[in-house]
Amino acid sequence: MLQTIAFYVFAAVIIFSALMVISSRNPVHSVLFLILAFLNAAALFILLGAEFLAWILVVVYVGAVAVLFLFVVMMLDIDFASLRAGFMQYLPIGAIIGLAIVSELILAYLGWATATPPGPPSATTPGVSNTEALGRILYTDYIFYFQTAGLILLVAMIGAIVLTLRHRVGVKRQSIARQVRRVPAEAIEILEVKPGQGVT
After folding, report:
1. Residue 2 domain-assigned?
2. Residue 3 and residue 65 in one domain
3. pTM > 0.85: yes or no
C-alpha cells in the first residue's frame, strides 16, 4: 500500500513538472522543473527495483545534461519575447499535433488495458546482480545503439561549446602556447624598493 501511494505521488509530481517545463515563462525555471522531473523518475526506478538505472538517471541527466541546459540557457543572449511573438500564429497546428498525441496515448492505454496479462516474470540467473545483467545485455546485444547514443551526446556537447564560445572585446583569454613558451625572465620582475617607498 505504501509503495502504491509513493508511486502515485512521484507520478503526479512528474506530470506537474513536465507541464511546468513547457508552460513556464522563464527558461531557467523550465530547466529546474526538468531536473525535478528527472529526480522523481529516478524515484520511480527505485520503486521498480532498478537502482542502477535510477542512479544513472541522476548522474547523467540531472548532473550533466540538465546542468548543461541550465548553463546554455543562462549564457545565451536569446530574446525570448520575440520567440513568443508568433505563439498564436502556430497555435492551431500545435493543438492538432497535441490532440493527435493524446489520441495515440489513449489508444495505447486501451490496448494495454484489454491485453491478456503476461505470466510471472522469469527469474534472472542466480548470483547475477541487476547491474551485471544490464551490462551484459547493453554491451552485447545493444552495443551499436549504445555507441550511437554516445556519438549523439558528443555532437550535442560540441554544439553547446560552439554556441557559448564567443570572442568578446576586452576579455582576457588563456593562451596555452604562450604559457608553455614563457621563460623565467618574462615571469619574474625584480624591483629595487627604497625604504619608505611603495610599489605602485
Report:
1. yes
2. yes
3. no
- CA 162 → CA 42, 72, 117, 125, distances in Å? 31, 11, 50, 47
- Which CATH number belongs to the domain containing residue 30 in this structure? 1.20.120.1200
pLDDT digits (tens, 9 = 90+) for 114-161: 766 555 455 456 677 777 887 888 888 899 998 999 999 899 989 888
Give 48-76 pLDDT, tens digit per residue: 877 888 888 888 888 877 777 777 777 76
Nearest to 7 by CA among 48, 65, 68: 48
80 alpha carbon, distance to own chain's centre? 21
Helix orientation angle between 2-23 and 27-47, rounded to the nearest 10 degrees = 160
Percent of the chain with pLDDT over 90: 7
Please report the DSSP string for 4-31 in residue order.
Answer: HHHHHHHHHHHHHHHHHHHH-SSHHHHH
Q: Is the pLDDT of residue 99 over 80?
A: yes
Is the Cβ–Cβ distance between 33 and 21 less than 8 Å? yes
Residues contacting 131, CB < 8 A, separation 6+: 52
Q: What is the rounded distance in angstroms from the CA atom of residue 116 to the CA atom of residue 96?
A: 32
Locate cell 513538472: which residue?
17
| Domain span holding position 13 | 1-78
C-alpha 14/C-alpha 21 separation (Å) is 10
Is residue 186, in this structure, part of any structural domain at all? no
